[in-house]
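Data card: per-record layout.
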Amino acid sequence: MQQVSDVDALAERLERGPLAFYVGFDATADSLHVGSLVPLMAMAHLARAGHAPIALLGGGTTMVGDPSGKTEMRKLLTIEDIGRNRQGIEKQVRLFLRDAGELARVVDNADWLLPLNYITFLRDIGRHFSVNRMLAAEAYKARLERGLSFIEFNYQLLQAYDFLVLRERHDCVLQIGGDDQWGNIVAGIDLIRRVRGQEAYGLTFPLLTTATGAKMGKTAAGAVWLDAARTRPYDLFQYFVNVDDRDVERFLKLLTFEPMERIAELAMLEGAAKREAKRVLARAVTAQLHGEEIAAEVDAAARAAFGGEGQSASIPSVTLPRAQVEASVKVIDALVAGGLAPSKSAARRLIEQGGVRVGDRKVTDIDAALLSDDDGKLLHVGKKHLRRLIFG
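The structure for this 392-residue chain is written out next.
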């Protein structure tokens, strides 16, 4: 927990019984990434405690774009793209609503934002907002020097209006989210008080970072996504099994349902035994997103690959036409094709840094090509990431 609008009042409200709360996700991509796991898990924990979760998918607000945490304006998406993205993230959100049963709701703010009459909205809602106060908000203040578009300036009004609508329709009294949403959440609380004369609350969580200060889910190969088509379950598992030792206990608490007593035991492990705690973390996150069966498969695959056997069918592969290999395919091309590097320039840097192997052969030349007998061998980047080479 990072910030709470009124901790004593919220605690008193929670003592009176279950409440309805919401967390919002804009449809800026067809998948969420691992940085979204904190609000997702918070939603799941509150649902397990008997509260009624509302997952709001921003089909409407995505058309405007949230300036929070951004140094420049987001790319405006088409309605068709937003619709496809919304469908993708809804599947992931519902994985964290399973324990809520019939109490769970998934709503789309396009349902009430798109039909709005602009002039009526300005008269009824816009009059409650102070421009001076909005400009003092961190999300806007950070953008003023680089430029803040008028369409983005409207975002806070729309998100505040979302909270008001959910308060009226579903008696929603609490909004949760990342700390970058604090200004927007407070604006919604204030709007509800001004329009309805009712109380509402906000609660935020720190944005998830690693012990090194890096954003959670950023890797050399790009973001770590929740969608198996974007980040394969094996790679998701490997990401968590290779986190910094200093992050393990915190991530177990934030991202799993492991009992606190069990986490305390795992936190006591040291040295090589620490890998067992990382396996528990990796397997729990993978199972939550992709199911226990797939989690068991990738766990076994990782043991096989890094235990020297390396024959598991669950090890991700990269398939290259044999004719192309025989005509010369560079290792950098295989790194990009296998998702081990986001670009050729990044692949070159990996080779120059000495972190690439094909089987037992270290690759030192950025122009090195694959050999015909590399078929079936493992392409390694460091000790953490690999692909099986398949020549079709």
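Known properties of this structure: The chain has a mean pLDDT of 89. The radius of gyration is 24 Å.

See the next section for split statistics.
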